[in-house]
């Protein structure tokens, strides 16, 4: 099999996971209007206020989504997109000017699957089952955003840190003999931004978790020794844990 055919097959398999409601023939057709794009670390994908040309789905890597302040001097990270998550839906399906309402940039080297706006609109008219999967994804987003906003105002660092580590481990954890290795090449600064705290505060939290035997340590890597202890510290019920498995 040629490298080109292998790439096409990988994209088709990935889209089948993202859109489980679509039949094989529909996935094949969807794959034909997709474009696989690669971005380096800290590369801007979409600028807030710029023309929104379509929908992006994260195939690999990690993205930051955010907005600038009213004066444009500072920016606030609103959420992070992991594998299987997407952005650009509002610009495609809302009947208004097609502009990005947020900025999007990579945190690590990433691969995205892109669908041009007119192509995905035409596809959706003939394949309405697409909206079942999009609605499910948006519902998860609403639940997790509500959950995140509530926890940011009332919960402690330990609980939010435990929740973040659980989310990252679901997407990027590699099981080894000594525990679950978090194989994600992002800086402590990025992890701190994901929690909305300083790097110093994050380091204190990680140190506390190591002292409690929640985490191991090996040359600066994060090794999760016991996910059940993290879930207990996060104080999150099974419903949110199940959503967390699909949404960062």
Biggest β-sheet, characterized? 4 strands, antiparallel
Basic shape:
globular
Query: Would you tell me the overall average pLDDT?
Result: 84
Question: What gyration radius follows from the Cα positions, in whole Å?
Answer: 19 Å
Structural class: alpha+beta
CATH superfamily of the largest domain: Jelly Rolls
| DSSP strand content | 15-25%
Q: What is the terminal-to-terminal distance? A: 35 Å
Question: What do these coordinates show?
Answer:
With about 250 residues, the chain is of the alpha+beta class. It folds into 2 domains: about 140 residues, Sandwich (Jelly Rolls), CATH 2.60.120; about 90 residues, Winged helix-like DNA-binding domain superfamily/Winged helix DNA-binding domain (Arc Repressor Mutant, subunit A), CATH 1.10.10. The protein contains 10 helices and 12 strands. The strands form 3 sheets. A 4-stranded antiparallel beta sheet has the order 1-8-3-6. Strands 2-7-4-5 form a 4-stranded antiparallel beta sheet, with no helix packed on it. A hairpin with a 2-residue loop joins strand 9 and strand 10. Helix 7 packs across helix 8. It is globular and about 55 Å long.
């Amino acid at each position: 099999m040629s490298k080109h055919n292998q790439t096409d097959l990988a994209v088709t398999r990935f889209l089948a996971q993202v859109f489980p409601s679509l039949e094989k023939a529909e996935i094949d057709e969807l794959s034909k209007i997709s474009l696989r794009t690669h971005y380096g670390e800290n590369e801007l994908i979409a600028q807030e206020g710029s023309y929104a040309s379509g929908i992006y789905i994260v195939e690999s890597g990690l993205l930051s989504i955010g907005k600038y302040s009213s004066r444009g001097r500072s920016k606030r990270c609103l959420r992070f997109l992991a594998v299987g998550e997407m952005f650009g839906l509002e610009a495609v399906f809302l009947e208004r000017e097609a502009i990005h309402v947020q900025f999007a940039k990579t945190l690590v080297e990433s691969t995205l699957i892109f669908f041009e706006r007119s192509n995905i609109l035409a596809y959706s008219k003939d394949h309405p089952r697409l909206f079942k999967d999009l609605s499910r994804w948006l519902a998860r987003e609403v639940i997790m955003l509500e959950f995140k906003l509530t926890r940011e105002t009332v919960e402690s660092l330990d609980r939010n840190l435990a929740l973040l580590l659980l989310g990252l481990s679901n997407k990027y954890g590699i099981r080894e003999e000594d525990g679950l290795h978090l194989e994600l090449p992002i800086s402590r600064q990025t992890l701190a931004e994901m929690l909305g705290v300083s790097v110093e505060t994050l380091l204190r939290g990680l140190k506390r978790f190591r002292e409690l035997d929640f985490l191991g340590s090996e040359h600066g890597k994060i090794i999760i020794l016991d996910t059940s202890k993290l879930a207990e510290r996060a104080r999150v019920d099974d419903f949110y844990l199940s959503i967390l498995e699909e949404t960062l």
